[in-house]
Amino acid sequence: MKKSVFVTREKAEEIAAEYLTPFYLYDEAGIRANAKAVKDAFAWNPGFREYFAVKATPNPFLMQILKEYDIGADCSSYTELMLAEAAGITGSGIMFSSNDTPAEEYTYANRLGAIINLDDITHIDFCEKACGGKLPETMSCRFNPGGRFTLSNGIMDNPGDAKYGMTAEQIREAFTILKSKGVKYFGIHAFLASNTITNDYYSQLAGRLFDLAIELKNETGADIRFINLSGGVGVAYRPDETPNDIAAIGAGVEKVYNEKLVPAGMGDVAIYTEMGRFMMAPYGVVVTRAIHEKHTYKEYIGVDACAVNLMRPAMYGAYHHITVLGKEDAPADHIYDITGSLCENNDKFAIDRQLPGIEMGDLLVIHDAGAHGYSMGYNYNGKLKCAELLLKEDGRVQLIRRAETPGDYFATLDCFEIYDKLKQRVR
Ligand SMILES: *Cc1c(COP(=O)(O)O)cnc(C)c1O
């Protein structure tokens, strides 16, 4: 399938004239349409709730758009909890799915009334202490079935190698302990595979979790209120991939729900999800300008963005589609490496990519950067992170995070004398 862009060259140039390149651009219309589709897909389940995985795109303005669709926040750190609170999401609107959790994070999550999802059985006492000696009424436990998890289309992941979650034995014991400590309502959570490009992942995962829930209810008497399918629903980064169909995914979960939970007398259990990538990745792009071309043993195009702005290609060799704006329909008759400026040879957005001929000054769009994009950035080489902008439904552009300045980069030196010298140089 041809990948389309939600911004024209003219519009991108207009934005670049005001905000400079590179920048992140998010598509409000796309975010809203998708949020609505997710709600519709699970409307059969009255308690359904999506908790947006904040780590994917920790921007409060985007979180607030999702909040309009009753979408909560899945947090796993102190600052993510702060963001949720500031965005007006509190109480059961927050799922705290952390691991290796510091005590003060449990304390804060508990103060906000978040639903705490325990990663390990040893966290029960730790969390109880952090919550001032009294656990919340509702608690969730994270399951890890171990071994391999294989989907019908051959996609698999290795839960047995993953640091997350508890064994079934441990959850059984954890539920019994939690009950004895006064916990009333229970949830089960699992995240078994990432970026699954198949409509079957959630239903297969749900089947396993529903079986486990029925067992746990029978064996421990726990009042199970929700099953959290977590994240892992993928997006089509490559043009030859078929995007997931969220309606089909929702219907697949409904089928298993009716087959397993309803006959077990558990037809009131809520389904929760914690999607990050699926909620945001396709609706965010990096817009960057070609500033150098280089012909040595290969053809290089140097752009003004680098891995600091989008790390996935450098870190995982991840594919991100690239469109040269204004040349959407031109033949892709050149082969380029598209590089950033870091002193790291893996700072390449694309390797041996077929693209139309690129001229200096052309604007390139790097697709599907709306999740695990900006948030994964870092500051290597002292490079600064760029701005985030929202293309509103009415065509206006809203700044939702300014670009970093040298002042931001040096801010953690502000308790030292040398900071005065640095500050003098900050324009
Ligand atoms: C990262 C993460 C998610 C979101 O994953 P996606 O692949 O972006 O959907 C959800 N829940 C937890 C606990 C996570 O760590």
What labels would you give this structure?
2 domains; alpha/beta; TIM Barrel; 31% helix; eight-stranded parallel beta barrel; 427 residues; nine-stranded mixed beta sheet; binds pyridoxal-5'-phosphate; 19 strands; Lyase, Ornithine Decarboxylase, Chain A, domain 1; single chain
CATH superfamily (homologous) name of the largest domain: Alanine racemase
Named once each, the bound ligands are: pyridoxal-5'-phosphate
Distance between the termini: 46 Å
How would you classify the helix and strand content by structural class?
alpha/beta
Mean pLDDT: 97
**Regarding CATH, which class of the largest domain?**
Alpha Beta
Structurally, how many domains make up the residues? Answer: 2
Weakly predicted, low-confidence segments: none
Strand-helix topology:
Layout: H1 9-19, E1 23-27, H2 28-41, E2 49-53, H3 60-67, E3 72-75, H4 78-86, E4 94-97, H5 103-112, E5 115-118, H6 123-130, E6 138-142, E7 149-150, E8 156-157, H7 168-180, E9 185-189, H8 201-220, E10 223-228, H9 246-261, E11 270-273, H10 277-280, E12 284-295, E13 299-303, H11 312-316, E14 322-324, E15 334-339, E16 348-355, E17 363-366, E18 387-391, E19 397-401, H12 406-410, H13 418-425
Parallel strand pairs: 1-18, 2-3, 2-11, 3-4, 4-5, 5-6, 6-9, 9-10, 10-11, 13-15
Antiparallel strand pairs: 1-12, 7-8, 12-13, 12-17, 14-17, 15-16, 18-19
Pyridoxal-5'-phosphate is lined by residues 53, 55-56, 74, 97, 191, 194, 230-233, 274-278, 371.
